[in-house]
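check this:
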Amino acid sequence: MLDSVRKPSFDAPMVSWTPLLVIEGVNGHSYNVVAYGDLFWAVRWGEAPFDVDRFMAGEAKTPVLVGKTVEELSFALDLMYPRREDKPIAGEALSRDMDQRACNLYVLREDARRRALAATPEAPESKNESIPKVDLFEPGDGRPICIISPAPSRTCNYRCEYCYHHEHGFTKNAQATESWRKAALTAVAKIPRPLMLSMGAMGEPLFIPLWRQTAVDLLRHDNVRRLSFVSNLSIDPASFLEEADPARIGVVASLHPSEFKDVESDFQTFLTRLIWLKERGASLVVNYVLTPSQIADFTGYRQILRNHGIPMTSNILRGPFRGKMYPEAYTRDELATIRAFYDEAPFIYDYQSHLKDPFGSRCTSGRYVFHLEFDGTLYNCHFARQRLGSIYDQKLMVRRENGFCTARKCESQTTIGVREDVVRRYRMAGNMHYFAPRLEGDEGENPFE
């Protein structure tokens, strides 16, 4: 199992190889669980920093446990620390139930892992293991599926200080972007189903020649119903759409007034390009990040756009910003104002504000919606990170029924919008960020139907 945790030599961060804090204080123990390398790692408080190379070299100061599921790590911690004390019990559990791979690095043995899953039949991972599978490379029932696969290039002409991707720098990531192009084109060629593609970039896609060419090539496939992407529209999309049908394009137009040189003039250019896209049949929504300084202007911008028949949504600020951590740093008044902005889609506020925890609830990801990494690995989503296989495999088995979420946060509007409880009541637009309420009696099962 640990043979696969050596990070590949790509020139861009990958989903699997970016440590993700999953649980703090798992099951009452002074341990956190971190997802990394398609595995889960239980690491004791104070063992920081998280460093797999150090753990593999046997340099961990306290026991580190590695497993395929959170449930088995919780089970193993209960064996090691039955009284939740600082010191593990004398080596009985270690020798009987765990294999030592290095000093202070342990893996639960297969028989103990089976006991762990049997002891937690209601855990999401245990339930997911019993869901029947179907080959993604077979025609299926003809219903559309969504592939989310942002290009790893971080080339951008903006430098928004609240950008979710700024911690990785702004680089072309040429090797990884070439790999992404190959994986995306392979996916649309091998999957004989109607496809909705979310293929933006970690920067400005219209600024990236290889992204533009890849988007055009993807749209040449008849099974691709729509290709959506996020763009700040500082670059005129007209030249790109000379080779692509605007009616098969979805655009999440990100509005960043903080980057405008002349707010009034630059917004007018932004609006003119939106109207041009709308007149040609593109699926549009405008997105706006709710930093404390931008909250006050949201209502005015939304009204202008509504006058032109263009919907607007927003993102709650998440992560570090100006020395504070959001959304926790919002004031009570700011949160009350923001909540009112989500009158049409309150579920987005619930999850982005961390009011709701998705753990254990059902989701269409892994059945109708997938995250494709640029090396070809397919996950149910980039929060839960349940690896399903590779687009280069001969068979790629995915869920035939909705699975159970193993993540503690669901923050992307797209992934929030494919949760089972949302899909029942809302239909997702082709831009993947706007949701229309279903009519009474029209409970949905597929996000796009």
The chain has a mean pLDDT of 90.
